[in-house]
Amino acid sequence: MDEINTGITKNKHLLGWIAECVKLCKPERVWWLDGSDADKERLTEEAYKTGDFLPVNAEKHPGCHLHRSAHNDVARTEKLTFICTRDEGDCGPTNNWMAPSEAYPKLSSILDGSMAGRTMYVIPFSMGPIDSPARKIGVEITDSAYVALSMMIMTRVGIKALDALGDSDDFTRCLHGKADLHESRRFICHFPEDNAVWSVGSGYGGNALLGKKCLALRLASWQGKKEGWLAEHMLITAITNPAGKTHFVAAAFPSACGKTNLSMLVPPKDFAEKGWKVQTLGDDIAWIRVGEDGRFYAINPEAGFFGVAPGTNEKTNPNAMKTISKNTIFTNVLQRDDGSLWWEGHSKAPEKGIDWKGEEWTPEKGSPGSHPNSRFTAPLSQCPSLHDDWETPKGVPLSAIIFGGRRAKLAPLVFEAFNWQHGTFVGATMASETTAAATGAVGVVRRDPMAMLPFIGYNVGDYFRHWLERGAAASNAPKIFHVNWFKRNADGKYLWPGYGENLRVLKWIIERCDGRISAVKTPIGLMPRKEDLDLRGLDLSEDAVEELLAIDTQEWLAEVESQAEFLSKLGERVPDEIYVERGKLKDRLMGNKG
Ligand code: OXD
Ligand code: MN
User: Which end of the chain has fewer surrounding CB within 10 Å, N or C?
Assistant: First the structure.
């Protein structure tokens, strides 16, 4: 069989596994990615030949490519995502379970011969900086040039990952095959006990770039439980105040709720003039360990952004626009007549173009030109607001963890948890309106613990226990906050301007971390008084501020009942401490002492 870059490893565990996969998938050729520029160039040429890439206007988008996915393959498919533990109890009630003894044969029969006439790309990669003690090595096999080139942006690929692996057997075996992309033959299966992921029938990023959600969240959360660390769906950002003091914060929001925007926030003009600075370390995933000084240290295991395009523009996220100005893969956006790219919320709509389905489009057509979950894949290194420590092997110390959801009602702009246990409860019961990042209805409120509902790779009760234990293991754990940028008034209008103005809330948060500002005790947590928020220069009515900070006791009492209903579905492994916190919240709301 034809092979490219053979001999780049002598690791017999890896060679043995690739041989097994070749036997199963029967590709025409095997291409080992060495991570070099020459390899990338050749692979790019290949992607144009296979039709994975379509050309774009090279003057407007140098080094960029357009990819159009199958129409039925545009988002994560949670229904078709499985945790395959031997014991169903270890998977827990928030995941779909399939026994490994069922999953392996089922997926093998789909993969059998599925790469005939195609190239099998072998991608050795590292999640995390190669020199970080926290990094994990994986090897992904795929028959998609789009996936291979996306992995080259999102992770650290090639010989350097193989060198780090050496002769070891300690790597995640990630097997991805497109097969026929039919939904009835689509499965994303995780085998935490075997350190393996098999994904078949989808080319969508979250289902197919296996370093991301599959390894860095689902398997990593399981490994973190065993090894004493946390894998979380969190951005990491650095906020520096005018005195030059930097606080690192991590924030967990559900998919497509603004993590990329927050991680690249541009301070409002008057804040920037005073010397406030926000810098980016990551927009989606954080791996967190307790350091020797008792603080939480976070690394971003990724090397790229896989961001949502719609709504991204010069005003909402100028740093993202600069990041994606070159060397970026765009998926399912609209192409204008001159070959340049556009998406809803980018700029004025073109009079016509080719939409994400490859069909002629005009605004009158009534359907979006780009898919609501259309994406950009771009290297972190191109982000103008990147923080110097983004690859620091030990990670950065966290002052605060922020949970957030998209909620039209109920949750105020910001509150602080009383302590770690209460913060864990706040995260465990947080809720958000669903978005286009996953298939299914959009805009429905669902509980999404720590924004990890689709990504906790084991029993959710054990996960809450792990959170409580990690906090107890840290003598100097971060403070926990909850924010809601999405509260609306009775007319359905957003009350808070969001984007850069969110720094006003972050300012209160880090001042709390410095112990420099007071807070009011409320039944749900510690909150700023109106005058504690720096709202100078912001056109916001007194009423709006009051509404943003309001707590409606009746609504919260209903919330507590709905939390109870949710918790009751999570099984017996939910720690008592979570119920205790719920009871205390109810008591405080009823006016009793908490
Ligand atoms: C993502 C997601 O792509 O959360 O980051 O779906
Ligand atoms: Mn995400």
Answer: N
Task: Determine which one of 21, 174, 214, 257 is catalytic.
Answer: 257
Q: 2-54+78-227, superfamily in CATH?
A: Phosphoenolpyruvate Carboxykinase, domain 1 (3.40.449.10)
Report the pLDDT averaged over residues 210-218: 98
- The residue among 67, 66, 47, 69 whose CA lies nearest residue 58 is 66
Q: Where are the domains of the chain?
A: 2-54+78-227, 232-300+390-593, 304-382
- Which atom of ligand 1 is nearest to 438's Cα? 6
Q: How far apart are alpha carbons 262 and 236 in whole angstroms?
A: 9
Q: Whose CA is nearest to atom 1 of ligand 1?
A: 255
What's the chain's average pLDDT?
96
Tokens of 34: 């060495």
Q: How many CA atoms lie within 13 A of 503 on its CB side?
A: 26
Q: For 232-300+390-593, CATH number? A: 3.90.228.20
In a mutational test of the pocket of ligand 1, which residue from 306, 371, 373, 435 has the highest number of ligand atoms less than 8 Å from its CB?
Answer: 306
Whole-angstrom distance, CA of residue 111 vs CA of residue 121: 15
Query: Given phi > 0 = left and psi -120 to 50 = alpha, else beta, which region is 366?
Result: left
For atom 2 of ligand 1, which residue has the closest CA?
A: 255
Q: H or E stretch including 17?
A: helix 12-25
Out of 2.40.37.10, 2.170.8.10, 2.40.50.140, 1.50.10.20, the CATH code matching 304-382 is 2.170.8.10
**Over the stretch 42-97, which tens digit does the pLDDT of each residue have?**
999 999 999 999 999 999 999 999 999 999 999 999 999 999 999 999 999 999 99
Determine the pLDDT at residue 594.
46
Residues 101, 15: Cα–Cα separation, whole Å: 24
Judge whether residue 177 has pLDDT over 90. Answer: yes
- Ligand 1 — pocket residues by CB below 6 A? 76, 206, 255, 284, 306, 437
Q: Which helix (H) or strand (E) holds 395?
A: none
Residues in the chain: 594
Which pLDDT value is given to residue 592? 62
Model confidence band, residue 6 (pLDDT cutoffs 50, 70, 90): confident
Question: How far, in Å, CA of 16 to CA of 10, rounded?
Answer: 10
Burial class (CB in 10 A: 0-12, 13-18, 19+), 587: middle
Identify whether the C-beta of residue 433 lies closer than 8 Å to the C-beta of residue 444: yes
Residue nearest to ligand 1 atom 3, measured at CA = 206
Cα radius of gyration (the chain):
24
The Å distance, Cα 420 to ligand 1 centre, comes to 27
pTM of the predicted protein model: 0.97
Tens of pLDDT, residue by residue over 484-498, are 999 999 999 999 999
Q: Specify whether 257 is catalytic.
A: yes
SS3 119: strand
- Max distance between CA atoms of the chain, in angstroms, equals 75
**pLDDT tens-digit profile of 232-281?**
999 999 999 999 999 999 999 998 899 999 999 999 999 999 999 999 99
CA of 234 to the centre of ligand 2 (A): 8
